[in-house]
Amino acid sequence: MAIVFESFQRDQAAHGLPLLVAGQPERTVAWHQGEAVSAARFMAHVQAIAAQLPPAATAVNLCEDRYAFLVAFCAIALRGQANLLPSSRAPQAVAEVMAAHPGCYAVGELALQNPPPHYRHLPALSVTPDTDDGCAWLALPSDQVVAIGYTSGSTGVPKGNVKTWGSFHASNAGNLRMLHAAVGKGFHVVATVPPQHMYGMEMSVLLPLLDDVSVHAGRPLFPADVAAALAEVPAPRVLVTTPVHLRALIESGVALPPIAAMVSATAPMPVELAQVAEQRYGAPLLEVFGSTETCVFASRRAAADEPWTLFDGVHLHPQPDGTQVRAPQLDEPMTLADIVTLHDGGRRFRLRGRHADLLEIAGKRASLGDLTRRLLSIPGVKDGVVFQLDDGDALGVQRIAALAVAPAMSEHAILDALRSAVDPVFLPRPLKLVDALPRNETGKLPRAALLALL
């Protein structure tokens, strides 16, 4: 096994892309258990774990600790295998992904009570293995599939999307240009999103691998934990988060160490929330736009309600059913369901909703996104969503439903407030009050979970 593994490594180095850019042995890749982890120590862990992995084509990376995820991600890739990234670590989601990839195994740093089949419990990463190898020469073929990321299921069944090492290098270049322009080089990331999500992958896994960036190993969710994680890394600090997490952070009143920038994705960022965040924390909020299919390809300052600016080499072509995306990380054009209007010679755009979100009832038009925004603007509504049901009425019109978190309000009061802003044909019925929306780890709302609440 060792001979085969070493031969595979030499072949990678001969004609591939670096696994670790800015690979000076002493540079910090991650902050783990209160300590700085150097590139040399990181690569020693990667090679030790890679030598222990079984032969297979794919492996489900279930690591919750971000440093363990980084090590496992690279070790799996060094074995010529692809990381399977389910939309959730829930047993059913993991089982569905494993069923679609016969012969795969799973890895994680936790001793699970009910592990999935062929689960490999990774050893503790507190001791640095002995190794005579350097870290700069390790590389992967650009066309090697290193990950298969699954969509969140917010619009239906999660779908797998293949990512090669070359495509990750290409997509990461746009993120780096954006962040270098905002905060310079050599920054440190704290992320509230899981590394299995493509946004988390780009902002907390690829950045420390492909630039002089370090990442905190935790995934803090509660405001005090976010503040503590930020305090454990040096300046300049970049907080990678979502609108849901950012709103909770602001409402908590917890003070944060100085941060250089905030990055947000996974859901539209309300202008008002972005403005409060920038004022509270004294840092720009960079909202990024992309998908599991495309990776990030545009950004904007949400607080200024700017149009989205495309990354270099990206071109959009509006279609009847959405928008075609051409980008350096895509081998062929990809059509998304988002409807856009182009500005400034096609280099900037405004988002007008998703094709699937557009409603037409009784000759009138609206969008689910705008209806949700109006629901959330009602004083007393803490969270909410408007969505369309699958079954139509006697005339074939699909009914509109809504879920709202509003502890001090009644359903009638919310509907009365909506009547002043929404045409009666678009009033959601049913509208149901719930204690909390079934948001996943990135704040998205899987459609199946919404329907189950009704």
TrEMBL record:
InterPro entries, per the entry: AMP-bd_C_sf, AMP-binding_CS, AMP-dep_synth/lig_dom, ANL_N_sf, ATP-dep_AMP-bd_enzyme
Tree of life domain: Bacteria
Keywords: Ligase
Domain spans labelled AMP-dependent synthetase/ligase: 136-307
GO molecular function: ligase activity
Descriptive protein name: AMP-ligase
Organism from which the protein derives: Dyella jiangningensis
Source organism phylogeny: Bacteria, Pseudomonadati, Pseudomonadota, Gammaproteobacteria, Lysobacterales
